[in-house]
């Protein structure tokens, strides 16, 4: 009984021994270990790269904070906005502006609003306006060209004013700009005649004529300036202000003698003159 049992066990052991390949088993176990080691190595490498990246970012972030002298709050406000962003400066700039006490005289200068007619509707259609000028003999190269006639129409100049200009001999002498501005500023024909008789009409611009008329600059004062050589070198602003404040030609000559004349503007001249008179 025991012998047959031993034979069965031995036979069974031989069967397992015949079917089991030890080398293959060991090789499989070895491959499983290699694969696990490979996975573990890759995980370790990934963890290492992630850790290194975090360290690099931390170093860069710290360098930015140090270089720009930023706090985390300031950086947040700079990138995402905030109510108040404080900027610290080691050397604040202090600018002291001295008080300015200058008595600047009022200057009433109305620069011309060229060709801005306000009563065009009273002139009727442009075609009829031009036809009437043509019938009066005023629409010609020696009087008003078609272009000039259209411009004075746009400026609102009535035909009666053009007729009077022509009768006075000024229609052919004035440009359409001068005609429009003299009409708009109500410059009397008598004033134009007086300027012409004193030799100033051809020398002065329409702006100067208008401002001298409005400021009531006398022809005697213009003559004094002209004889002393100031009329050609002074602008109408200087002349009108000198006239209003009584600045004499003799005072201007004194300033030239002292060498101050070229360094003073009209405000300086007026204030100095007033302080001595």
Strand and helix layout:
Blueprint: H1 2-19, H2 22-68, H3 72-80, H4 120-123, H5 126-135, H6 146-154, H7 159-168, H8 176-184, H9 189-197, H10 206-214, H11 219-228, H12 236-244, H13 249-258, H14 266-276
The domain count comes to 3
Note the run of SSEs as H and E.
HHHHHHHHHHHHHH
Q: Determine the number of helices (DSSP H or I, runs of at least 4 residues).
A: 14
Question: Rough shape?
Answer: flat
Portion of residues in helices? 55-70%
Characterize the largest beta sheet: strand count, sense, and whether it forms a barrel. none
Q: Calculate the mean pLDDT score and round it.
A: 75
What gyration radius follows from the Cα positions, in whole Å?
Answer: 51 Å
Poorly predicted regions: 1-19, 93-102, 107-118
Describe the overall structure:
By secondary structure, the chain is mainly alpha-helical. It has 3 domains: 2-80; 107-203, no CATH class; 215-277. The chain has helices at residues 2-19, 22-68, 72-80, 120-123, 126-135, 146-154, 159-168, 176-184, 189-197, 206-214, 219-228, 236-244, 249-258, 266-276. The longest helix is centred in the N-terminal third of the chain and has 47 residues, at 22-68.
């Amino acid at each position: 009984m025991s012998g047959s049992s031993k034979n069965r066990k031995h036979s069974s052991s031989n069967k397992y021994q015949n079917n089991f390949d030890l080398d293959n088993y060991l090789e499989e176990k070895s491959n499983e270990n290699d694969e696990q080691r490979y996975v573990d190595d890759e995980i370790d490498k990934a963890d290492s790269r992630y850790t290194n990246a975090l360290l690099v970012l931390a170093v860069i972030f710290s360098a930015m904070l140090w270089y720009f002298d930023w706090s985390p709050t300031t950086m947040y406000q700079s990138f995402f906005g905030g109510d108040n962003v404080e900027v610290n400066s080691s050397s604040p700039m202090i600018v002291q502006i001295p008080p300015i006490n200058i008595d600047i005289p009022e200057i009433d200068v109305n620069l011309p609003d060229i060709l801005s007619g306000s009563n065009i509707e009273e002139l009727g259609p442009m075609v009829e306006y031009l036809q009437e000028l043509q019938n009066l003999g005023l629409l010609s190269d020696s009087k008003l060209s078609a272009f000039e006639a259209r411009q004075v129409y746009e400026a609102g100049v009535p035909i009666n004013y053009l007729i009077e200009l022509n009768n006075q001999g000024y229609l052919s002498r004035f440009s359409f700009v001068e005609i429009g501005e003299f009409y708009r500023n109500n410059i009397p024909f008598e004033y134009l005649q007086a300027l012409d008789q004193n030799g100033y009409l051809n020398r002065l611009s329409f702006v100067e004529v208008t401002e001298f008329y409005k400021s009531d600059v006398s022809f005697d004062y213009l003559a004094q300036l002209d004889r002393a050589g100031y009329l050609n070198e002074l602008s109408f602003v200087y002349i009108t202000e000198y006239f209003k404040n009584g600045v004499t030609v003799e005072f201007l000559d004194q300033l030239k003698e002292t060498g101050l004349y070229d360094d003073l503007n009209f405000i300086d001249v007026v204030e100095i003159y007033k302080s001595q008179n």
